[in-house]
User: Fold Copper-exporting P-type ATPase from Paucilactobacillus vaccinostercus DSM 20634.
Amino acid sequence: ATPTAIMVGTGKGAQNGILFKNSTALEQLAQVKTVVLDKTGTITKGTPEVTTVLLQPGASQKRVLQLAASLEYYSDHPLATAVIEANEAQRVPVDDFTTHPGLGVTGQVDGQLVLVGNAQLMAQSQLDTSGLAVSQLTDQGNAVIYVAYAQQVLGVIGVMDPVKDDSRQAVAQLQQQGLKVVMLTGDNAQTARTIARQVGITDVISDVLPDGKAQAIAQLQQQQAVAMVGDGINDAPALVQAQVGVAIGNGTDVAVDCADVILMNSDLSSLVTARRLSQQTMTNIK
Ligand code: ADP
Ligand code: MG
Assistant:
């Protein structure tokens, strides 16, 4: 594109809360054929709330939330806030706090190992989760957080993060432009599929560890040019890998640093606008 076309496109972007960090991004967004969307904080609001706690026989909800919140206090994961807010008991001291990206968190309480995280985290310690009927939670779109203490799973916390008001419409508009829209998430398949259905996405890549996000993008790039939209630290490598990396709204600093385009409003319709600006920039010069 000519410098003038780039200037016009960049300027219109700024008026709409869309920051193109370089002219290549403005030019390439029109070329992408696949748009990959992170789930949490990108398609959903990123303000999860605890909806349900399922317990093993003999366990108490108060204790499950207390243990979970005591560890999550040290986590910066979006799910952590929900657990901390739902807890009404005094936090207990935690030793050896450790974050396991894409899995959960662990620590020691009263000399016992506490695990707070997904089914994979429990499976890594050979803990049995089969007594808990989580499908009723995941079918509704809840993320699930298991809580284990001293080699026993005590219960599971269901956390719901509602989709943004405009996500469904934005996905439809992208699809109408002939784009393939894919959801990419570290969350479990069932939860991911429910949220995907709510916004009209059929292509879902779930249970992806943070390292795996960039690999998933690379695989999609073998077919077509890809734009990736995300907000989290765990999205950063994927944003770098994609032809166009897009950070959304109140994205973490790392995501914003790694992206080529920043959507200052945290709604997905800005992506539709960004792509339209890119197309206008490219047709104006030919
Ligand atoms: P996403 O791709 O949706 O942003 P992440 O890769 O951050 O998800 O996390 C994937 C999954 O790992 C979460 O859905 C959750 O089950 C589990 N997990 C990660 N961190 C935590 C945490 N601090 N507490 C509980 N669960 C966690
Ligand atoms: Mg996210």
Residues 38, 40-42, 230-232, 235 surround magnesium ion (ligand 2) (CB under 6 Å). The chain has a mean pLDDT of 94. The CA atoms of residues 6 and 58 lie 65 Å apart.
